[in-house]
């Protein structure tokens, strides 16, 4: 079979702002192609196509989501719909391979129904957390796995915040209870929790405790919150802060028994073509505590020709090609990554509802 016939044909279901970046990533990925765009109306789909430079000859335009799902030439669906719509449409879409924007669902019960639909139809699932796919992430994992340089994980801190502005806080989908009721926790907090769990090899904590510094809007949606995660047996604590009200942060700091890793742009690198992180190993104070014996070392990682979003699409397309052309089974790793993240998000909410008490996770 000719190589070009193996390109995975993507359909975009919903023309949210995130779809602009992912449509570019689909075009950049060497093993995928943007085949179709669907919105709730033909006019909206055509407007998105025009604004992003896609002609009718390049992509098929649909005025409903159902039309896209009925098209047998669509291999995979990218779905950036509001979270409240994920359960309905992701289950319907699960005869196609699925790239689902985060947060994946309103709770783990809903996500389990989506994942079961994907499993029963033998299709690949992945959420849209692009940072996992950056080559920097693999390089950081390599360092964390070096017991001499880093030792054992002891504590983790993560933050994801930005100032939404008045227009955002009044009109954005992410602050509407009927559309994205998880608010900052589901949006920015998803990355924080994902980064922490990544550092812990996706092992769930024993307990989760939300801190009282919670801010909600008049709709009851979380605009800012902080929580801690505790692994009792390992005696490890992680904390995270997520907010629509604080200056831009994307921090991840992992402290071990012999080293520390730190970066300030773990979700979206400062530059698309390269990214870096700093680590310190074996640091001690010099005599009289007037300085350190070592300074942090900076590791630079080139992105190459593909930014992290395109690498995400490339990896998903590679998995789909294996299923479609080589009879392989879907890789359940990405479903599990999403599920443990969703479980922690759920438990933070329970802790808030229980008066900021520690809640055992299950």
Automatic annotation (TrEMBL):
- Gfo/Idh/MocA-like oxidoreductase N-terminal domain segment(s): 8-126
Q: Which residues form the GFO/IDH/MocA-like oxidoreductase domain?
A: 139-261
GO molecular-function term, one example from the UniProt record = nucleotide binding
One family from Pfam that matches here is: GFO_IDH_MocA
Organism domain of life: Eukaryota
UniProt-listed Gene3D superfamilies: Dihydrodipicolinate Reductase, domain 2, NAD(P)-binding Rossmann-like Domain
Task: Note the SUPFAM superfamilies from the entry.
Answer: Glyceraldehyde-3-phosphate dehydrogenase-like, C-terminal domain, NAD(P)-binding Rossmann-fold domains
Q: Can you tell me which residues the record assigns to a coiled coil?
A: none
Entry's family note: Belongs to the Gfo/Idh/MocA family.
Recorded protein name is Gfo/Idh/MocA-like oxidoreductase N-terminal domain-containing protein
Q: Which organism is it from?
A: Daucus carota subsp. sativus (Carrot)
High-level lineage: Eukaryota, Viridiplantae, Streptophyta, Embryophyta, Tracheophyta
